[in-house]
Amino acid sequence: MQEIKLIKPSIELKNAYLDFCEEWNDEKIIPYAGRMFDKTYEEWMEEKRRDEFEETRPENYVPSSTYFLIEGERVLGCVNIRHRLNDRLFALGGHIGGGIRPSERKKGYSNLMLSKALEIAKEMGFAAVLMTCNEDNLGSKRSIEACGGRLENKIYDIDHYVLRYWIEL
Q1: Is the pTM above the cut of 0.90?
Q2: Under the phi-then-psi rule, with left for phi > 0, alpha for psi from -120 to 50, and beta for the rest, what region is 20?
Q3: CATH number of the domain that 130 lies in?
Q4: Contact at 8 Å (CB) between 41 and 14?
Q5: H or E segment to which residue 123 belongs
Q6: What is the pLDDT of residue 148?
Q7: Tens digit of pLDDT for each residue in 75-117?
Q8: Residue 1 has pLDDT above 70, yes or no
Q9: Predicted confidence band at 131 (pLDDT cuts at 50, 70, 90)?
Q10: What total of structural domains would you count in the chain?
Q11: Helix (H) or strand (E) holding 88
C-alpha cells in the first residue's frame, strides 16, 4: 500500500484528476472548487493557484487552497481550505469542504482527508475551523464528529437544514 497524502494539484496529476472527475457522472463534484466547469485542467490548475491570494482571487470569493488526497497516482478525494469566511460561508459553507470519489466512499478516506486538512489549517494559523454539512449527509456528519467537530447549531437553507460544527485545533 502506498502512502496516502494531501498535495496541491500538479500537471503530473492531470490524468488522475480527469479520471476522478469522470467517476462522478451526473453527481456534482464536491467541493465546488474541485469542479473544472468548461476549463482545461491547466486553466483550472492556474485558477486554483490564483485563488490562494487575496489580490488574485475572483471577486466575492475568499482566498482558498485546494488539495488532492492521493494514493500513488490515484486521486481519492479533493478538499478546499478557505483562508477566511465571508457572511455566506460563515452561515452555510465553513472553512473546509471536500469530497471523496464515489468508488472510494465508506472506506475511511473522508476522515483521513479531513484530519490532514485540519493539520494544514493549524499550520496556516487557525485556532478553530467551522465545518458544515447537510443534515441528511450522514457520512460528512460522522467524519466531522470523528475529527472533533462540536455541533453549534443548524440553519434552514431553502429546503434542508445545514449543520454547523466547530473543530478546535
Answers
A1: yes
A2: alpha
A3: 3.40.630.30
A4: yes
A5: helix 109-123
A6: 98
A7: 999 999 999 999 999 999 999 999 999 999 999 999 999 999 9
A8: no
A9: very high
A10: 1
A11: helix 87-88
Can you read off the three cell numbers belonging to residue 72? 500513488
- Residues 161 and 92: their CA atoms lie apart, in Å, by 10
55-94: burial string, b at 16+ Cβ within 10 Å, e else: eebeeeebbbbbbbbbeeebbbbbbbbbbeeeeebeeebb
- Match 469522470 to its residue by C-alpha cell: 22
Q: What is the pLDDT of residues 17-35, one digit of tens each?
A: 999 999 998 888 888 889 9
User: Looking at this protein, which amino acid is placed at residue 156?
Assistant: Y
Quote the cell numbers at residue 92: 452555510
What is the extent of the structural domain holding 131? 4-168
| Residues shown for the chain | 169
CB 96 within 8 A of CB 127: no
The grid coordinates of residue 152 equal: 453549534
